Amino acid sequence: MENERGTVRSALAGGAGAAPGRARLPRSRRPVGEPVLPGSSSPWILMYHSVAVEKEDPYQLTVSPERFAEQIAWLHRRGRRGVSVRELMRARAHGRDDKLVGLTFDDGYADFARYAVPILQAYGFTATAYVVADLLGQENGWDTEGPRKKLLTVEEVTELASAGWEIGSHGLGHQALPGLPADVLAVQTRESRRLLEEVVGGPVTGFCYPYGAVDAPAAEAVCEAGYDYACAIAHSPLTGRFALPRCYVGDRDGAWRLRAKKGRHRLRDAVTGLKRNRRGRPEPKGGVGSGSERPGGERAMKERRP
Hints:
Blueprint: H1 8-12, E1 45-48, E2 50-51, E3 62-63, H2 65-77, E4 81-83, H3 85-93, E5 100-107, H4 111-122, E6 128-131, H5 154-162, E7 166-169, H6 182-200, E8 206-208, H7 216-224, E9 229-231, E10 247-248, H8 255-279, H9 297-300
Parallel strand pairs: 1-5, 1-10, 2-3, 4-5, 5-6, 6-7, 8-9
Helix pairs in contact: 2-4, 6-7
């Protein structure tokens, strides 16, 4: 079928990969509610989607290449280095993340390779691209009111991973996870990881919740699937290694807005820490996150708006 061209499943058809129901992936030994480091604040992670030129952008997903270059230059002038979340977490484990900021790109748009990568390379920065395993080479059909955007192909994902860019999972078909049965959650997390590991030829250790939507069962499923961390959006009772908060970055965000967002992140992190200390950490299967756990929450969240 035409719409199967370029997807992971079609590329791997007939290959030696394990059948979906038999995929055996190591389980993470980290508890879902674990902070990034005991008693620590959350790292600063910026959330991008598309870097391109668009006349219409109703979801405010797109940052122009010119504005993106200004934002990256601002980070560089401030003495910060943009890195993948994988690198950020490794540095943080050794207390060496003081000048690092995580750079993430949700949905796996093809313009990441065309526009974002060259700008990042010019500054020696890295980043993480979270891709939708079953939709590689297709389009962002979930954004019903926005422009059609091409997604990275299997070949492009392979090339990016070979060049050192972190590839993370954004699920199988960009489906919100909260409310799904446990068996479906297991498929969304485990199978997307298995497929992407076939493509990149190595471990895929990062997950990003579609729409930023997370609740305790979803976080538990990600942990069970063997990921090392997962990105959400907002601070919530689940904030920690498997629900890392991030700052939305849009086309209107210049230097002063980025400074303000950094301050807001620190404030929200402090408030979340105080609440955690008062209540104690949530049980892995108890409670839920913030409003970001509603299906479609990533698009609706005020967090995403300037």
